[in-house]
Amino acid sequence: MTVDAGVRVHEILSSYSSPDTNVGWLLCDRHPADSLALTIVDEDQTVTTYTYGDLAESSRRFAEVLRDRGIGAGDRVATMMGKSADLVTVLLGIWRVGAVYVPLFTAFAEEAVTSRLTNSQTRLVVVDAAYRERVSADGPWEVLVSDGDDGPLAAALSAATGKDEAPVTVGGDGPLVHMFTSGTTGTPKGVIHPVRYIAGWHSYLEFGLGVPADGVFWCAADPGWAYGLYTAIVAPLAAGVPTILVRGGSSTSATWSVLSRLNVTDYTAAPTVYRGLRADPEDHPKPVALQRLSSAGEPLTPEVNLWAEQELGLTVHDHFGQTELGMPAGFPHHPDLTIPVVAGAMGVAFPGWELTVLDEHHDRPAPSGEVGRLAVVVSGSPLMTFTEYAAGRGDAGRFTTDKTYFLTGDLASIDEEGIIRFSSRDDDVIIMAGYRIGPFDIESILVQHPAVTECAVIAAPDEVRGEVVEAYVVTSAANAGDALASELQQWVKTKYAAHAYPRRVHFVDTLPKTASGKIQRVQLRQQRRTEIEEATRA
Predict the structure, then answer these.
(1) Three-state secondary structure call for residue 427
(2) Contacts of 126 (CB under 8 A, 6+ apart)
(3) pLDDT digits (tens, 9 = 90+) for 343-366
(4) pLDDT, tens digit, for every residue of 234-264?
(5) In whole angstroms, how large is the CA radius of gyration of the chain?
(6) So what's the pLDDT on residue 291?
(7) Among 274, 271, 276, which residue's Cα sits nearest to residue 299?
(8) Sheet-wide strand order for 355-358
(9) d(CA 249, CA 89)
(10) What is the pLDDT, as a whole number, of residue 434?
(11) Which residues, at least 6 apart from 398, have a Cβ–Cβ distance to it below 8 Å?
(12) Mean pLDDT, rounded, of the chain
């Protein structure tokens, strides 16, 4: 029977919106105790499984640990932990007592950690021993170290009785997570997600990812960030779909091994991961169980699907989201909603969301196909929960004056069929001699060249044209020089547009990225402007 997406969204949303909602029940206790909830793959490829009953017992113990420390409803508890069963135990324990979770990415340095702990007024930090030195001992927070079976966390859990106290009721509008934006376009801002924010991710798992109840699901994203936290842990626990967490590094060999050994049917990862698999020179057994591939975090460049369709017989579906929103758009996998994937496009609005493109200068919809400001129509998006940033920072101009639209900060177009095509971040757009050029378009062409591993395109100042296109390229070529640079320039002229080729190609070993893996074009722009200014003064 064909699903009525609107009715189903309402059903999902209602289950997370009740005033008597408690998260312990939503993510754990409502599921059969003997049902598989979690599979952990260790660095040595050892596999350990956990049922909902296992997680209920361990998380009740951690809830008791928190209560004994005086931590309860509304208090902030942070973790700086790798992917593990302990992490899931701690999360569920936090939510059982009505506390609010503060995720910390394990690659953060001490300054970034301290800033987030201070701004969120965190009371307790659970940290893996490997990252202990990055959590300041001088803060007002208590620190509990997780160090395997013999560490302080294990001892505290062992000493707890695990008594079955009812989870604290916080309601659908109660705070669930206090996290921070990635800082791609400025200082990270705090976002407090309410419990009903889970509904958007549950809906995304069902419609966007299309994961069936009997699927073998693996999200490779790190739970220190919104996509990994909600897609790898929260949404599958909410939906009762078993999830996989893989410890250690994300080598291509380990990825191929897990996909094959665990018969993964549904896989999602950042475009960088797919590009790594594509570039892997080793001949790995192809995972035969795979049915659906998805991507999020950065726009998916076309060469990934040229590879995936040839090597795996599958098309990667690109999905778009933001910390503030969740996942409002993409190419859905749900069999009743699926549409042909269009190379270089972002997809369509998912159920529960309405997106439009506004004129660049006026808060009104732009004509079909015209590039403008990508926006969420608030009244048509029941899954939207964001209203403002934490600590009195307001909405930072993310809404139009009348609050009708939420501005994503992206430039895009929408055609008559509702397909969204990304152009650029609104501060990444290049204006050269009157031409408006989106860096993503040129990057998508460059990465199709066999010598290009990764690239970033920016605007560099130019006396004549105002701005010109320049490219920073990570290459697999042994000798990267003027000849390859000229070849790449001609490649863009031939395959995209003569006027949009990069006037200069810089060959680099790596590109600057945020801790979540997003390319920091703003850093490259600033670096290039400084170089040009210094050269002018010399």
Answers:
(1) coil
(2) 77, 78, 79, 80, 81, 90, 144, 145, 146, 153
(3) 889 999 999 999 999 998 899 999
(4) 999 999 999 999 998 778 999 999 999 999 9
(5) 23
(6) 98
(7) 271
(8) 355-358, 372-377, 405-414, 420-425
(9) 22
(10) 54
(11) 324, 386, 406, 407, 409
(12) 92
**The pair of three-digit structure tokens given for residue 295, joined into one six-digit string:** 């991507």
DSSP 137: T
* pLDDT for residue 426: 65
Query: Are the C-beta atoms of 237 and 16 separated by less than 8 Å?
Result: no
Give the pair of three-digit tokens for residue 400.
């139009």
Choose among 334, 488, 322, 493: nearest CA to 410.
Answer: 322
- φ, ψ for residue 469 (rounded to 5)? -80, 130
Which residue in the block uniquely carries the two structure tokens 């650029």?
A: 424
99: pLDDT strictly greater than 70: yes
Answer yes or no: is pLDDT of 88 > 80. Answer: yes
- Beta bridge partners, 51, equal 36
3-state per-residue secondary structure call for 54-97: HHHHHHHHHHHHHHHCCCCCCCEEEEECCCCHHHHHHHHHHHHC
Residue with tokens 């018969």: 263
174-202 pLDDT per residue, tens: 999 999 986 544 567 899 999 999 999 99
Query: What is the Cα–Cα distance from 459 to 526, expressed in whole angstroms?
Result: 10
**CA-CA-CA-CA torsion sign (525, 531, 534, 536):** negative
